[in-house]
């Protein structure tokens, strides 16, 4: 019975991570297609992406979530409060077609980005609080899979829904998905709080800077930070430029959208789940090296395919799928280890700090890659990204044992907080 409760919690957290990921993906990565159809300029579409900036301030959003107590089970109350705010924003966005009201659409999208980014903090703080440490690597893989599924839903399915059923339909669907995940948290909050939650509620609060310094004072935290900053951004940048690469090599738009959006997204989700299942079998140290090695192999194959070229479209498709698989494995590892390095009494602040570091690196590398593309072309850009993954692999090889030693006691902990 306890196992079934844990499984239910895992999928509840996965559903809510999906519900919070979809709106930002839909508004900022799906909507540009619609914007272009309504004569938005390239500059306007580019400036619209600034609505994603709240993600880099997650470490600041985490502070009030950690410190402002909203009663017993305050993380649940924070989550539900922010979800209600999101529902109100969906209603406002869906009242009328705003595609021609650029300023209002940007303002509401920015508000959605803030609310969804903020709600992610109490949600994943609850995952750290309510799941035993031995379950948190699996929670990370489920969250990674939810991100890939969110890209399929927000970047593809909802665009089709809007084209066929009108402006309002996607907002109604996103609101329904979010509302569906809220009642279980309310029910769980009404029960006895987990032991870890009670300890967190009673913990004295240090100063904000001391809180962040305490995170880096954990055994293995500095090595983990190097891994966090380097493991994903290079493969993520390659994935971002895959669509324009395929288009420039002559592949039809619909085929590119299917391969990268549907097949690639599904592959990433599948390998996120596989990666989470393999980590307990491989161990942290071997998983770090193996997953980075798969990522390196994917970029080497993609680079050789573009350089040589190998002459068949099949090689390019195989490279794209392998890149998606590597992204799924690495992101599952990153999300899982993020939870492992989140202290129970500092759930929100530790999680927010780590995700901010991850986001800054993830946003910075694609910008540099774009500059390299303009100067060196696809060949040069991919070569530099491959060298970046090679450097990340070298870092991973050096820090793997320190990270594994630090997380092993957490992963074998079987007497974590009871299920609520």
Task: Note the main attributes of this structure.
420 residues, mainly alpha, Growth Hormone, Chain: A, globular, disordered C terminus
SSE diagram, text form:
Elements: H1 2-37, H2 42-48, H3 58-67, H4 74-94, H5 102-130, H6 136-165, H7 168-190, H8 195-202, H9 208-216, H10 221-230, H11 233-240, H12 242-248, H13 253-282, H14 284-307, H15 313-340, H16 347-411
Helix pairs in contact: 1-5, 1-6, 1-7, 3-5, 3-16, 4-5, 4-7, 5-16, 6-13, 6-15, 10-16, 11-15, 11-16, 12-13, 13-14, 13-15, 14-15, 14-16, 15-16
Written account of the structure:
The protein is mainly α. It has 16 helices and no strands. The chain has helices at residues 2-37, 42-48, 58-67, 74-94, 102-130, 136-165, 168-190, 195-202, 208-216, 221-230, 233-240, 242-248, 253-282, 284-307, 313-340, 347-411. The protein is globular. The chain crosses the membrane at residues 45-63, 75-91, 103-123, 144-163, 169-189, 224-242, 257-281, 288-308, 314-339, 351-369, 375-397.
Summarize the structure.
With 420 residues, this protein is an all-alpha fold. The protein contains 16 helices and no strands. 82% of the residues lie in helices and 0% in strands.
